[in-house]
Amino acid sequence: MLVPDDMRVDVKWGTSSQVHADFSVLDFAYKSGVYDYFHYLSGVDMPIKSNDYIHHFFEENKGREFVGFAPLSQKKGYERRLRKYYFLCSLSRHHFIYDKISKFFLLPQDILGIERNKDVEIQKGEVWVSISKEFAGFALDKKEEIFHRIDHSVCVDELIWQTLIWNSKFKDRIYSLQDEHTGCMREIDWKRGLPYVWGQEKNDYEQLMSSDKLFARKFSSSYPEIIDAIFDTISKQNEKGRTL
To answer: How many domains does the chain fold into?
Structure first.
């Protein structure tokens, strides 16, 4: 399913355009009316379970929201992204220029105690989530409010889903708050990389195949063996499921 040209977004790293793009694809998929869940996956993600396993999992957990929350220790530094007004944050290729400009505009805000979005508790977590059609509809209804809140912000794609659900009636439907990656059911390794690219160590395949998560990231064509191995395993499981 391809998003029509009039719904496409020119995405610039670090800007609110990332969130606009997220909502554009969600809006398009939601309007089809045929999906119970919506999954955000990047081009370097893969499923690590069969279709039947994934479908059964969401049937068993229908109504739960798979949004991962980062540890509280990470929250404070990221809150600033939605509390302050940022400018020229699309200069990701010229960090030194952006840092200078950013400090120039942030300093008076700090001195004067200027903060925004004070009516919400800001949370952080992975961009990659799986949300129900009920929560998706709720998010889309609040789209314009969200866009207003993130105007002149920087790198807020890691804050939006967590902050939205935390300050809503859907908070009680969060699948897990014990572990960020259990919360979103993604196998992601931040200890060995930013994040780690699977396939660099011999036991990576076994680790992923024994994981209780549904999806994993990050994969690269530089390590095609593990991609092929996972694809072959999942394909055989899917074929077996079709013959039962």
So the answer is: 1
Assigned domain for 139 exists: yes
Q: How many CB atoms lie within 10 A of CB 210?
A: 9
CA–CA distance, 58 with 193 (Å, rounded to integer): 29
- Please state the pTM of the whole predicted model: 0.91
Range of the domain at 30: 5-185
With respect to residue 158, please indicate whether it lies within any of the assigned structural domains: yes
Q: Is 203 inside a domain boundary?
A: no
The Cα–Cα gap between 52 and 30 comes to 22
Q: Which helix (H) or strand (E) holds 153?
A: none
Residues 6+ apart with CB under 8 A from 221: 227
Question: Please, which residues bridge with residue 184 across strands?
Answer: none
Q: Which segments of 31-171 does DSSP mark as H helices, in order?
A: 51-60, 72-83, 95-112, 133-141, 143-150, 160-166
SS3 242: helix
Pairing verdict, β 215-217 and 186-187: parallel
Is 100 a member of any domain? yes
pLDDT digits (tens, 9 = 90+) for 5-26: 787 888 887 788 999 999 999 9
